[in-house]
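As a warm-up, study this chain.
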Amino acid sequence: MIAYVILGITLGFAAGAQPGPFQTFLISRTLQHGWRRTLPAAFAPLLSDIVPVALALLLLTSLPTWTENVLYLVGGCFVLF
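Now compare it with the structure written out below.
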């Protein structure tokens, strides 16, 4: 279990460290207004993702087993496509 946690942290850090438009926005905002005024903007994606993630987990845990198998098949076909 701890190996999966470490793997998740590593992959999350690697994905978060890649430069992109949001990181550029945060850096420019930090330089203009300081880190204290930028901190809420940095946590905005974490707060805005709570509702969709909770709904997805609720939906996926309430589905029958056969539906999960269909999702696996569709996802596998999408990856192969």
